[in-house]
Structures are given as structure tokens and as C-alpha cells.
Design a protein that fits this description.
Blueprint (H helix, E strand, L loop, with lengths): L1 H28 L4 H20 L2 H30 L8 H4 L7 H26 L4 H20 L2 H21 L1 H25 L9
Helix pairs in contact: 2-7
Main location: endoplasmic reticulum
Protein name: Reticulon
GO biological process, one term: endoplasmic reticulum tubular network formation
Length: 212
């Protein structure tokens, strides 16, 4: 009984953690706090642009050296300051060193179960598409892959990643500001796409979806 209660408590904590994490991500993407969003956006762009000029190993090493230089300098500065002022404030990073960072067995199991669920779902969807369980969906997937070949020829992976990051931090704000106009155009596009798909389904044998 006690174990069941503890498991339910951990599950509730995990759900609360993910909910809180999603809220924080949405606040960043919608620029609710300009300083935080600007810092995260600038840091991501700096990292990605650095990767276009240097190898991953070099970028990681430089970042580690920068972080160590900052913490070591601050540690030495506080030690000298305490010696001069004859105070005993202790380690300057004591509060951070005492923060619990380990994951419990239940948390690790929860992460593993989530990862297993997404991997299995992805494999099942890929099997469905490649083995043409639904002809229309497989054709859509083929068109998407064909478009990606052109994107791959125009941009490398890092350039596409930079474009994704810029879009993530710009499109939500634009959509929030011009939601009515964007929804109107998206509805028109969806109507045209559905019309084309319907015509394809009528002309290709076996492409018509089964009635639900």
C-alpha cells in the first residue's frame, strides 16, 4: 500500500514537472520575459553558429573552458575577499553543490517507459508508411521526402537547425499577433490540398480510404 502511494506521488510529481517545463518553454517561445527569451535565443544561435565554424569537440571544449574560467575566477576572488575581510562565508557555490541532482529508480523507469513508447510508436508509423498500409499517407510521405531532398541540396543540417530555432522563436509571436489572418489563409490552403487529395484518391485504384 505504501509503495503504491509512493509510486502515485512520484507519478504526480513527474506530471507536474513536465507540465511546468512545457509552460516554461511556451513562455520562452512567446517572449513573455524578454531577457530570458533573448538570452536563450542568443545562446542557441551562438552555439549553432560556432558549430558552423568549429568541430563539436572544439565547441564543447571552449564552452567548458569558459565556464571553468568563470567559476575558478569567482572562487579565487571570494577566497581572497574572505581572507582580507576575515570572514567565513564558506564555499561560494555551496547552495548549488547541495542541490539534489540524482534521479530515483522510479523516475528513471518513467523516462525509459516514455522513450520506449515514442520509439515503438515511431517504428510502427514508419512500418505503416513504408509498407503502404494507406496509399495516400505513403504518397504524402514520399512527397515530403522528395521536398527534403531539395532542402538538403540547398542547406546543410546546421543551417536548417538555425532556421528551425529562428522559426521557433519568431513564428509563435507572429501567429499570436496575426492569428485571424493566418487561420484564414491556412483554411484556404487546407481546402485546396484536400481537394487535390480527393481527386488523386478517385483516380488511383486502392487509394480511397476505407469508410470508418
Amino acid at each position: 500500500m505504501q509503495a503504491s502511494t509512493m509510486a502515485a506521488t512520484d507519478s504526480t510529481k513527474m506530471e507536474g514537472f513536465w507540465s511546468n517545463w512545457k509552460c516554461q518553454v511556451m513562455e520562452l517561445l512567446y517572449w513573455r520575459n524578454l531577457k530570458q527569451s533573448g538570452f536563450v535565443f542568443g545562446s542557441l544561435l551562438l552555439l549553432l553558429f560556432s558549430l558552423t565554424q568549429f568541430s563539436v569537440v572544439s565547441v564543447v571544449a571552449y564552452l567548458a573552458l569558459a565556464a571553468l574560467s568563470t567559476t575558478i575566477s569567482f572562487r579565487v576572488y571570494k577566497s581572497v575577499l574572505q581572507a582580507v575581510q576575515k570572514t567565513d562565508e564558506g564555499h561560494p557555490f555551496k547552495a548549488y553543490l547541495e542541490v539534489e541532482m540524482s534521479l530515483s529508480h522510479d523516475q528513471m523507469q518513467k523516462y525509459a517507459e516514455n522513450a520506449q513508447y515514442y520509439i515503438n510508436s515511431t517504428l510502427k508509423e514508419l512500418r505503416r508508411l513504408f509498407l503502404v498500409q494507406d496509399l495516400v499517407d505513403s504518397l504524402k510521405f514520399a512527397v515530403l521526402m522528395w521536398l527534403l531532398t531539395y532542402l538538403g541540396a540547398l542547406f546543410n543540417g546546421l543551417t536548417l537547425l538555425i532556421m528551425v530555432v529562428v522559426s521557433m522563436f519568431s513564428m509563435p509571436v507572429v501567429y499570436e499577433k496575426y492569428q485571424a489572418q493566418i487561420d484564414q489563409y491556412l483554411a484556404l490552403i487546407r481546402t485546396q490540398v484536400n481537394s487535390v487529395v480527393g481527386k488523386i484518391q478517385e483516380k488511383i485504384p486502392g487509394a480511397k480510404r476505407k469508410a470508418e
